[in-house]
Each structure stands twice: as C-alpha cells, then as structure tokens.
Amino acid sequence: MVIDLIIKIAILTGYAIAGTAIGLLFMGIGRKIVARVHNRVGPPFYQNFIDVAKLLSKKTNISHGWIFDLALLFSISGILLTLLFLPIGGVKLLSMDGDAFLVLYLLAIPSLGFALGAGASGNPNAGIGVMRALVMLLSYELPFVITLIALMIYYDTTSIAGIVESQHSQWAIFIPPFLLASAVADMALQGMLMEQPFDIPIAPHEIASGPMVEFGGKYLGSLMIYKAISIVVETTFFVDLFFGGGVIAHGKFSGIVNFISWLVLIFIFFTLALLINTAFPRFRIEQAFKFYWKYETILATISLIWVYWMVIT
Amino acid sequence: MLDIIIAELLLAILITFFVGKKLAAIIAFFISLLPLVALLDWASMYGFKFISFGIEKSMNIAISGITLHLAITPLSWFFGIMIFSLFPAIMLFSYSFYDKNDGFYPFMLLALFSSFGILLARDMLTLFLFWEMMSWSSFILIYRNKDKEATIIYLVFSTLSAFLIIFGILLLYSQNNSLLFSEINLTPNLETVVAIISMISGFAVKAALMPLHVWAPVVYSKSDEPFVAFLAGGLSKLGYYGMFLFMFSLPGAKIMEEYFSHISPNYILAVIGALSAFIATIIAFMQDDIRKLLAYSSIGQLGYIAVGLGIGSQLAITGALFQAFNHAFFKAVLFLAAGAVAYRTGKWKISELGGVAYKMPITFTIALLSIFTLAAIPITSGFAAKWLLYEAAIKAKYIFVAPIMLIAGVGAFLYSFRILYGVFLGGNNHPDIKEAPKSMLAAMFVLVLPMIIFVIFPGYALDMMSRALSDAGIASIPHTVFTIKTSLASYNAIAVLITLIAALIPAFLIYKSKPHRIVDFKDNYLAGEIPSKYENISMHAAHNFYKPVEDVMKPYFEPGTIEYYKGIYKGLAILSNTLRKVYTGFTQDYAIYVAIFLLTVMGWLIWL
Amino acid sequence: MVVHAVLLIAIPLLSAFLIPLIRKISKWFTISILTLNSIFSILVLFEVYNKGMIYEIIAFSPPVGIYLAIDNLSALLALIINVFGAINFVSTLKEKSFKFHMLYLLAIAGSTGIVITGDIFNMFVFFEITAVASYALVASKKSEKAVEGAIKYMILGSLGSTFILMGIALIYSQMKSLNIYDIANRISMMNENIKWISFAFLLTGIGVEAELFPLNGWVPDVYEGASSGIASLLSFGPSKAAIYAIARLLIVIFPSMHTYEIALWIGVATLLMGEIAAFMQTDAKRMLAYSSIGQMGLILIAFSLVSQGIRYSIPASFFLIVSHASAKSSLFLLSHKNKMGSALTKYGGITAVLSLIGMPPLAGFWGKWYLFLGAASEKLWLVIILIFFSGIIEAAYFARYLHRSIGEEKMEASYAYPMAVLSTFSLAFGLLPFIYKMANMHLLGGV
Amino acid sequence: MRKQASVVITVIFFLSLTFAFYQISSSYNYMENKYDYTNPINESSANESVPQHYIKDTKNETGAINVVTAIVVEYRGFDTLGEVTVLFTAATGVGFLLYNLYSRKKNKREANLILREGSKIVLPFALLTGAYIFIHGHLTPGGGFPGGSVIASGFLLMMLSYPKFFMNEKRLSVLESLAGITFVLIGLFGLIFATYFLQNYLNLGNVGYLISAGIIPLIYIAVGFKVGSELASVIQNLKEVQE
Amino acid sequence: MNGVIMASYFTVASLLSIGLYGVMTKRNLMKIFISLSIMDTGVNLMLITIGYLPGGTAPIENANFAKYVDPLPQALVLTAIVIGVSVTALALVLLIKYHSKKGTLEYKGGMKW
Residue C125's pLDDT is what? Predict the structure, then answer.
C-alpha cells in the first residue's frame, strides 16, 4: 500500500521532471528549426536549459509584492498539476480522478495566476498583454470545446482516460468527422501554444514583450519552465484526444513503445505548429477572435452535428 | 415556537422602523439569526442534530378567512440554509455601511420574513402572498435610492412576475379546486402546461433569466450593496426555488415532456439558460461599472441553474442546486466586497478604481477566494457544481447547450480578471484609504466560510442536496466525501488538492531559492521610460479593457434586450397618446359618447 | 342598542340646516358632526356584521313607503364615506366659508343616502344632492380649470340624471313600484324590451357618476380642476356610491347573464381605457383621475362576475372598493404638493400605491385575488390577461409617480396626517380577519 | 362630422324611445292588475298595486284628502326631505360660488311706474296666496313647493321693480335653516314618539278640515317657508352679480 | 290606445331627442343647459303620461269621481321639477363664473386628454 503510493509518487515525479525536460528540449529544437527555416544557424538545442539555469540563479530579483509572487507559484504548480492529470503514452497517471473538463479548467490556473502577477506589476503593457491572452483563450476555446464535446458524445465519456481507452482499436482521427474536428483542434492548439499567427499576446514587437514585461530572474525562469511544460501538456492533450494518446501497442513493452510513439506525435504537432508559425504573419487580436469564432466554429459545429447524427442513428 | 419566531420577526420589523441606526442594526442582526436557528433545529429531520428546541415543523395561520399552510420540507430547508445565512452577514455588514436608519432594517427584515414564508409555504396562495410581500419590501429598498429607472423597472417586472405566477396558480386552481400543493394533481393537458410555463416565466423574472433579466443590471447597479447582496444571493434563488417546486416537487417537468412529445419546454429552458449564461458573460466583461459587471455575471451564473433544471436529470438538478448554493455565497461576498471598496473609495467605475488590494488586503483575499469560486477554478466548489452540469449536458447529449455553457465558463475568467485587475490590482489610484471596517470584514469572512469548507468536501454539499431532492423523488448521485462519480467520469477533489499542494513544493522551492527585493509600485519598465516616483501618470489599463472583443461582439448585441422592452414602452406610449384623444374636452363629444353608449347597451340587450 | 341607520342621513342634514345659525363655529361643528356620523356608521357596520341586513322603514312600510336597506357593502360604503369624510375634512380646514362646510356635509349625507336607501327614486334624489353639492364643491376652487371641470361635470351629470329618471319612469310604468327589492322580486313580470331599455337608461345615468367608459369625460377635468381635498372626497364618496348603485342595479334588480356580460365588458373597457390613458399623463391629478377610472372598471368587473354565485364577486368588490377609496383619496391628498418629504407621507404614499397595484397583505391584493378567483372559476382567461396587462401599466406609471414625488419638501400637517391615516385603511382592511366575514355576506336580495 | 353623427344618433334615439313607448302602451295594464307582493316587510298592501293602495287608503292612513300631498309629505316624505335638501344645496352653492363675484352697482335702471306701483299691490297678495297654498296643501292642489314659489315670485317682482330692493340675507338664511331644521326634527320626533323616521305621531284629526292630517301641514308649512326663502335668496344672489 | 297618450308620448320622445341633439351639437354652454332643461321637461311629461288614466281626475278625494290618475308619478314629478330648478340655478351660477373668467359662453375647448 505504502509502497504503491511511493511508487506512484515516484512515477509522478518522474513524469513531472520528464515533462519539464522534454518541454525545454522541444523549445530548443524548435528554435533551431525556426532558425533553419529563416536560413539562420540558431542556438544549440540545449540553449533553453542554459537559459533557465541562468535565470534561476540570478542574484537580484525584483518583486512587486505578494500578489506578484503568486504568478510564480501558480504558473509552476498549476501546469505541473495539469500535466499529471493527462494520460501520457497511455499511462493514466491521475487522469482517472478527473476528466477533460477538469483539465480545461486546470489549464486556466497558471494563466490566471500569471495574469494576477502581471496585473500586480502595475505595468500597463502587462495589463494589455494579459487582456490579449485572455481574449485569445476565449477565442480558441470555443472551437476546441466543440470538438471536445463531439468526442465526448461519440465515446460517451468525458474522461480523457476513457477517450484514450476507447481509441485503442481505432484512433479518432480515422473517423471522418473527427478528421475535420482534429483540423479545427490543431488550429486551436496553435492558439494555445501562442505561435504565429496567434502570438499577439506575447509578441515582443507589439507591446514590449507583453505580460511578462516585469518578470525577471527567477520569475522569468519559472515562466520559462511553465512555457516548456505547457508545450508538452497542450500537445499531449491534442494527441490524447485524436490519436488515442499515441497508443499503438498492447501487451509486453507496450509502455515504452507507446511512450515513444507519444513523444513522436507530440513532437510532430509541435513542429507543425512551429512551421505554421514561421509561414504566417501575425493576426491582430480581433482578427484572431473572428477567425476562431467564425470559420473554426462553423467547421467544429459541422463536425459536432455530424457526430451527433452518427450517434443517434 | 414557530409562532413566537414569526411574532418576534414582525415585532422586530416594527421596532427597527422607529429606533436609531445602531440599535436597529443590532436588533436586526439578532433577529435575522432566528430563521437560521429554526432551520438548524429542523436539521434533526436530516439525521443530524445541532440544537433542539423542538420547533414545530408545520403551522397554520388563519388570516382574512384564509388559512396559510406553513411547513418545512427538505427542499425548502436547503434553500433556507442558503438564503438565511446571508441575512445576518448582511446585517453585520450594514452596521457600519449606513450612517442613518432610513428604512433599510425594517424592510430588510420584512424581506427576510417573507422569504421565510415563501420557503415554508405549503399552498399556492401562501407562496404568492409572501412572494409579493418580498417583492414590495425589496421594491421599497430600491425606491430608497431614488433612482428613476430602477424604481420603475423593478416594480414593473415584479408585477409582471406576480401576474405570471398568479396566472399559473389560477389555472391550476381552476383544475384542482384546491390551493394546497398536496392536493394538486397535474394532468398533461393544455391548461396545466400553460400554467407551468407561466409560473416558470414568472419565477424566471426574479431569477433574472434572459430575456426577462433586464431589471437586474439596472437595479443591481443602482442600489446599496448590502441589499444587492441579498437580491443577487437570496432573491434570485427564491425564483429558482419556485421553479424547482413546480417542476420537480410537483412533477411539472414530467408533465410537460408527456404533453409535448417532440421538443419539450424543458429543453427550451435549458437552451435559454445556456444562452443566458453565455450572452450575459459576454456583456459582463464589456461593463465599466463594477455593479453592472457583477449583475451580468449573476445573470450568467444563474443561467447555469436554469440549464440544470431544464436538463432535469438527477445529475443536472444536483448540479443546479450546487451552483445555486455557491452562487448565493460568492455573489453576496463579491457585492459586499464591492460595497466595502465603494465605502472607502466612493467609486464604482472600474476605470477609476485600482490598486485597492494593497490597502485592503483582507477584502482582496476574500474577494479573490470568491472570484476563484465564480470562475470555477478546480478544487473550489464552484468547479464541482459546473462540472456536474457539464457532465449532465454531455450525458443528455444536449449538443447546443454544452458548448455554449462551456464557453460561458471560459468567459467567466475574463470578467473575473477584469474585477481583479481593474479594482484590486493595476494602478495605485487610492493611496490614502484604509482597510474596510471590522464588521464588514467579519460579514464577508462568514460568507466565504462555506466556500472554503466545500472546497475539500464536495461530498457534504452533495449530501445536503440529495436530502433536499429526496422528496422530489430524485435519487442522489454516487459520491463519497471527496469524490463524485458519474457514469461518464469522476471527480476527486482531494486528489486535485494534494497534487496541487505537491506541485506547489517545487514552485515554492524556486520562489525561496533566491531572495527578492520588493520595489515601489511605479518602479517598472515602461517601454524604456522609467517614471519617477512622484510623476503622476496613469498606470491603469482597465479602460476599454476588452475593446477588441467588444468591437467584434457589439454589433451582434445591438439592439440589446432592453431595446425591445423600450420598444414595447414606446408602443404603449403611442397607444396611450392615441387612445386618450378620446377625451377631447368637448362636452358635446362626451354627450355623443353617452348617447352611443346608451343606444349600444339598449341595442345589445334587446338583440340578445 | 338599536341603531337607527336613518340618523346617518338625518344628522348631517340637520346640522347642514343648522350651520347658518352658528356660522362662527361651523368648522368645529362640522368636524364633530362628521365624527359622530362616523361613529354611527361604525355602529351600523357592526350591526350588519352581527345581525345581517338591516331594513329601516321610513314613515310607511314599503312598497308604499320608503325603507333603508343596508347590506354588507352598503354598510362598508357608509363607513368609508363617513369615516373618510371626517378624516378628509381635516385637509380642508383652511376653508373658512360656512357654506363650504354645509356643502361638504351634504355631499357626505347624499353619498351615504345613495348606498343605504332601498328605494330607487330615493336613490335618484340622493344622487342629485350629491351631484349638486359636488358641482359646487368642485367649482369652489378659484381657478379656471375648476369652473370648466365643474361645468363639464354638470352637463354630463344632468344628462345622466335625466336618464336615471327616464329609467325609473320606465320601470315604474311596468312595475308600479319603486322599491328595489319589490321590483327585483317581480322583475320577471316585466316586458322584456322595456326591462332592457330601462336598464340601459339607468346604467347610462348612474354610469356617468360611476366613471364608466365612455361616460367619464368629465372625470379627468374635474379631478384636475378640483382642490385636493375635494378630489379626494369625490374619489371615495360619490363615485363609490354610484358604483354600488350599479351593483344594486346589476345584481339585485336586473340579474341576468346578458347584463353581467355587458357589465363585464364595460368594466374591461373602462379598466383598459383608464389605465392606458393614465400611462402617459404628466399631471399627477389627471393621472390619478384616469387611474381612478381604471379602478372603477375593475370594481365593475368584480360585480359582473356574480353569475357563479357571490363567492368571489362580492368579496372582490368589497376589498377593491376599500383599497381604491383609501388609496386614491390619500394619493389625491398627496397630489396637493406631490412631495413626500416626511416619512409619514412617504410610507403613506407607498402603501397607497402598493395597495392599488395589489400587493399583499393590503386590501387591494385581496380584491384582486378574489377577482381572479372569480374570473378563473368562470374561465375568463382573456379578462384575466387584460387585467394583468393593465396592472403592469399601472405599476409603470405609479412607479414613475412615486419617483417624481420624492423630495425634501414637506407637506402641511393638515394634508400629511389625513393622507397617512387614509392610506393605513387599506392595510387595516387587508389584515383584520373579521372583514372577510363581512365581505362574504349577501347583497340585498342578491344571488 | 359631429353634426351628422348627432343627427343619426338623435334619430335612433327617437326611434328607440318610440319603440319603448309603443311597448308600454301595448302592455297597458294600468292599475287593473293585482300584484302579488312578495316583500317580507310589506304589511299594508296585500293584493293591490301601489297606486291603488294610495287611492284607497290615503285618507285612513294619513288623514289627507290630497293624495299627492300625502305621498309627497308622508309616504315618500324622505324623498321630499331630499328634494328640499337639493334645493337647499343649490341655494348654498349659489351663495357660496357667487360670494366674491358680487358687484353692487348703484346705477341700475329703474322700472316703470306701473310695475313699481303694481308690484307693491301684488306683493301682499302673492305672499298671502303662497301661504294659503302651502297651508292647505293636504286639502287642495298645491302645497309647500308651489306656495314657496309663489312667495318667491312676489319677491322677484319686487326686485325687478326696485333695483335697490334688498332682503336681509342673514334673516333669509336663518329662516331657511329653521324651516329645514323643523322638517328634520319632525322626522326625528317620529323616531322618538312613534317608531319610524317621519312617521306621523300626531292625531289625524278631522279629515277634510284644516287642522288635520297630523304632521303633513306642519311639514308643508316648513317646506313652504324653506322653498320661498331659498328661491328668493337664489334670485337675489343671481341678481346681485348682474353687471 | 288613447290619442292623448299617444300625442303625449310623441311629445316626450320629441323633447328628449331635441334636448339630446342640442347637448350633442351646441357649443354655447347656455344652449346646452337649455337643452338639458328641455330633456328634463320631457322626462317630467313622460312621468305624468305614465300615470295618466283616460278619464281619470286629479287624485283628491272627490265624491263625484270614481277614477283617479296615478298619484305617485305626480309626486315624483314635483320632486323632479324642484331638482331641475336647483340644477338650473347652480348651472347659471357656474355660467356666470365661466363668463367672468373667459368673457364668453362659447366653449372652444380647454382641458383635454
């Protein structure tokens, strides 16, 4: 019993560390890829590890009071929490204790804390950045939520673990309406990752680096960790929903195989997001909003109705 | 015992009418504890025992040839606990809020008394009687503030609500020839269905359900906060109590489904609820007046309850009750907090406020907790409630309701942050204010307690609700103290909490790893310009905060619902101005009318 | 103790005749006589409450003579007219002329006479006393509007009284009797056509006083023109007496489905017309006048719902009359300055308005409640919806009125106190339990 | 528009009145019918119509020969009280409303000699005739109202002929009041000495003689004084405002 | 049906109609009141006609006659006449007041709506 618990805690800790590492690695690789597309050399793939270490070891940290500090606490703890509630490579972790709605809402904890911190900094630019981030959240959530509901209705479960399990025989992506839905969700993922064309909340050219303008030292370091894990979390969420969490094998060694396939899948979608990022110019915030609430929502609704029709017949 | 309580309430209403401010507040506070005491005493019928005075569970009062039947039921017990917890806190709050006794306490106590009556009513006349008493006592409370629009709109909508309700009562009465709930047999025919729909609409007015909500923003933004806290927290719940009574305690919802085979009004109610939640949320973050923002937020949050009632499954109803319970507390706290801020600063506009959190940290913390509940951040009870509703919508495969409801939930983050940023954080516009008075803090703290408790133990809340539902014949959903299970998924509050605490450890380690230096508020990086300490520049970006969304969404919300009501008003005005031209002022014309009248009556009668 | 109801009329008449002899103290004399009369009216009410209807013969027993017939509603109305008259008199204390006091007493006596008499021609005579006194009282205010209103009132009132007399003549031509109860008992012997024609004449004639649509052209002008105290007197005195006369006509003399139906729709038309016309009024007194018209329509609807038995109709009209009399008279007093500076006037005004809108536990609520029950038991859903509609309009303009009346300015005590006292009657009658038994008694010879 | 409508309405009104009268005439059952009175209070007339009762029993019940007088003063005395009150109210109203409109202008045109002298002669006769009429109200046609009117007309004549002729208004009103009080008091004495208001409590006397019929002559005298003084005061009031 | 009665009823109907027409069309307030008086007269005549009995005499005890007219309408008419007079007197006063304020008796519209 106790041993089980210890093992569980160990696994969870491991996943947390692995998630951080993978995220930072992806960020590094991402920078390299973008550099190559831009025909630059780019930094080494481990550059982000160095950045984080540097920031965390900075000696003078400027704080704007106790509410400002909440940003740090909320962003790291919240994103870790989210990570642990997602099935990774078919391993359910804590996701049996929650479901997709929980994850949707858990994703908001760090951003809300982050927003609190930015607000507390008193910098108007931060305020504007937070506003844009929140509007962006509202924008991409609508199509994303509709596709999520389509999945839930189709598999008759709201638990992510349940959805993943249901896809053991066939990934959702291979069912026609979900192909459409996954395309929609991928654009939503683009917004979640705040990559171009949806990077206006943090675009450095626009509003002096946006919400994190006042963050420095350990605060910025923690935000980088948050960003890294969130990349993992968001792509995993997507993969869990449409690709059965990357589960391809059952039986012996299935764990390691599935883990690798998961890793490959999230890397693919991260890369895809990066490629889109490099290829497109930036949307203004209202353009982004319109894009999501108009075209994306219509497509998502079509897929939802399609699914509903499939379910009731 | 019960008659003594009622007599004491009435006596206190009289006394507080005449005594001075402080004494009135003290009397009102202790008197407002009485219903709560009675409810705790009645708790023994749920198996737990706090106190026992042996207060009767039912009572009949004869007045003007009519017998009022009063009795406690599990459902009204639940709503009672919710509503009557608010009153003492509000009285406590108002102790320092008002500087003279100009009718707040007596009419507040009257509202308390009539709420008590509504909850105990066992026949339709009693229900209606107390309902109206509450309407007009709250009307007088609104009227005190001397705002024209609020006065008119509230009275008109109260009357509308009363008439819709009494219309339903009359329809039911003409069928059953009895006013007692226990003697009403609903049969699926047109009149019953019209009665139920009419009553639901009547209660929906008070529950501020769209499109009958238009009074709420006006009234909420033009009244004193202690009263609005009751209005948003208590009164709206009574509206849902009424709906619940006629939809589930009397099986109105079932009757309607039987009568309409295809698309039931229940479904329409759910859609209206969801749309209400969604539209109100969008409108909420466009507001600049914090009271209006909170009002629209209320409308939105209350919409969820309507969704729950509309879906009507065991899951949904439980969720609806849970949401009602949460909303009663967090919205009351938020209004009180807004009141406390206004008490110190005298301002309502979000764009003029800001930076209050540093001066009023306790108020801020309490408000923050309620905002977390409002925004349904996981581990708060607000999340549990909404989660149940989402599950219910998915389970019932309400594909239009579910996404709208969910996106409204996301929208709640936006206006929550609006409050946090605009009022409490952001620019430091109020350097010389103090923390709110102790009585106000105490009031808010008391109200925030249930939220804290049900964070970890949603099971207890579910226990309460399943007992409340027992007499409507609705089974409770499987749950333990920490977890709730549905056929679709489960939610484990303790797992989330423990993991969160565990995840806080690394975050805390990072936080503690290096020391930090707290700098002045204005010491920040502004596009290369560093403002000096005393330079007076606006550091507040709360003005036109969600302008982009507003720009996109505004065209779709034009004209607003109120425009349609104004259209009705204009139509009536034209009608009035046309019809009263009959009174030309010439006696010759009047004589012609007289002659025509005479001949018409004569002709009519001879003809027949 | 034997209560002689005739004293209700004889005493004010006697004192009105006496006043010219004692001009100096006429004010205090009048007020004491009104008080005495109020006490009598209360005694009469209790007598009716305890023993049922009172018949009091005058000189000879009917049908050759005249008798007073007092049922629950007339006892109530006698009480309202006398007690309210006494209270309202306080507001006119500034009037010094003894003739004013005489006219006031005569108006009170006349209205009382209308409701307690059991003879149809006698009723006509009292109508004339009331009307002539009212014309003079309305014109007593020294303004152009008052005179104009009085003239309009007079023209329509005279036309109406001609029609009443015509109706009486037609009835007499057939029945050879003037006693209401006697006519009622033998009404079936009457020629159908003459019956309806006489009903039409009587309804038209009394309807002018009872403010029925479309006979009420004079109402707004008179209420606007008259001084507050007189407007208040008119609202609880003559108009209420007239509507009661219509009830006797409708329920006692000509009970038939057709008359009920016609009264119902006239009531609905009056209600809607009054409320809709009041909706856009800017002048407070005029608005209240239109609102009065609406309330009279409501009372007429209540009377017309009698065909299913009096179970709901009479209590409804009972409470509606109390509510309207007390609320409207206090609001007319309030309209003197229209400022609710003191708590007394503020809560008085609110009570009155709430009672008119029909909020429990005020009398207006019980009135509307029984009215609705009656209408529901006859399944008149359309009527109910129309009443709702008018109620909402009423709420709208009364809310506006209340808001406009907010102000720091205080009214004179001579207006504020009667106003507050009058408005409390709607509360008292809504709460006192014995009233219900009173309301549930039978009308004279009625169903 | 209004005129055409009025014409139409008047024609319809005329026709319906004609219809009503035709109905009355066709169902002409004058006085021959026996009525079955079901009124529980009714004691006196069991099987006859009201007019029949009056004609048959007036003499026995009231002692008056003139049935109309008996009806006016005794059977329906309450009406008469009301009627007197209406006149009183009107007179009061006239005085009340004209109070501040009086303009006693001196230069009024004198009447011619014949009128002046003639009226001097006529006045006593007018007064006497009036008094005669109301005193003999229970015996001959006429009564308080005609008598009072005749008296008032005498004063009218005086006012027409002498612009300065002026009656003491106070005395008039005292007279008026006393007459009214007498009427009500007689009624109230009925309540005290007999059972009902206005009931006769005096001896009926010798029917057909002047001193008979109980309270009828008393009331009629009071009414006569009252009507006379009231009409006179009304006329005087109206006269005084002439420009 | 008696010719006298017929003629009388015809007169009644005419008087009432004329009076009503006058009230409905005249602007002069004096004329309106005159019209009202005409109507009053009509009704009084009607009362008398109702009580009339062909061949009847005044209801005063008289040995020579066995047939009397109905006495009650006559009593009523007495009352009605007095009431008519009173109302007319008051009407005249009101007209005087009106005239003193407006200088005319033509009503051209005043308070309305």
Answer: 92
CA distance C225 to C150: 8
Give the domain range for residue B589: 564-607
The per-residue pLDDT for C126 is 92
Q: Is the dihedral of CA C376, C380, C381, C384 positive or negative?
A: negative
- Give the CA angle between residues C84, C90, C91 to the nearest 5°: 95
Q: Which chains touch B (3 or more CB pairs under 8 A)?
A: A, C, D, E
- Report the alpha-carbon distance of residue B468 to residue B45 in Å, rounded: 11
Domain count across chain B: 1
Query: Domain total for chain C?
Result: 1
Examine the pLDDT at B318 and tell me if it is beyond 50.
yes
Asked if the structure places residue B588 within a domain, the reply is: yes
C358 to A100, B30, C351, C371, C390: CA distances (angstroms): 52, 32, 10, 11, 12
Tell me if C286 is assigned to some domain.
yes
Q: Is residue C103 part of a domain?
A: no
Helices (H), A44-123: 47-56, 66-84, 100-106, 108-121
Please state which of the ranges B434-448, C179-193, D31-45 shows the lowest mean pLDDT. D31-45
At B532 the pLDDT is: 58
Q: For residue range E54-106, what is the model confidence (pLDDT) as tens digits? A: 777 777 777 676 677 888 888 889 889 989 988 998 998 888 888 888 888 88
Tell me how many helices (H) and strands (E) chain D has: 8, 0
Residue of E nearest to C176 (CA): E72
d(CA C224, CA C284): 8
Q: Of A172, E79, C231, whose CA–CA distance to D86 is shortest?
A: E79
pLDDT in tens, C319-373: 888 889 999 998 888 888 877 778 788 888 888 888 888 888 888 888 888 888 8
Contact by Cβ (8 Å): C204, C210: no
Q: Which of residues 264-283 of B touch C (CB under 8 A)?
A: none
Residue C433: strand, helix, or coil: coil
Q: Write the CATH number of the domain with boundaries E3-102.
A: 1.10.287.3510
> Per-residue pLDDT for D83 more than 70?
yes
Residue B423 lies in a domain: no
Q: Where are the domains of chain A?
A: 2-312
Q: Which residues of D29-56 are buried (b: 16+ CB within 10 A; e: fewer)?
A: ebbeeebebebebbeebeebbbbbbbbe
- Does B106 sit behind a cis peptide bond, omega within 30 degrees of 0 on the bond before it? no
**pLDDT at residue D42, as a whole number:** 47
Q: Which of B356, B317, B98 lies closest to B227 in space, CA to CA?
A: B98
Residue C347 domain boundaries? 256-442
Q: Please give, rounded to a whole number of angstroms, the shortest distance from the CA of B594 to a CA of chain E.
A: 10
**CB-nearest partner of C262 from B66, B585, B601:** B601
The alpha-carbon gap from B596 to the nearest alpha carbon of chain D, in Å, equals 7
Instruction: Verify A-C touch: 3 or more CB pairs within 8 A.
Output: no
**Alpha carbons within 13 A on the beta-carbon side of C162:** 33
B591 to E24: CB separation less than 8 angstroms, yes or no: yes
Dist. CA A149–CA A271, nearest whole Å = 26
Closest by alpha carbon to A112, among A63, A78, A83? Answer: A78
Q: Which residue of B has its CA nearest to D5?
A: B592
CA neighbours within 13 Å on the CB side: how many for D148?
26
Provide the pairing of β-strand B516-518 with B490-492. unpaired
Is residue C292 domain-resident? yes
Q: Residue A80's pLDDT is what?
A: 85
Cα separation, B219 vs B217, in Å, equals: 6
Interchain CB distance below 8 Å, B596 and D9: yes
Write down the H helix ranges in B43-73.
Answer: none
Q: How far apart are the first and last CA of chain D?
A: 38
Mean pLDDT over A131-151 rounds to 86
Q: Are B251 and B186 in contact (CB under 8 A)?
A: yes
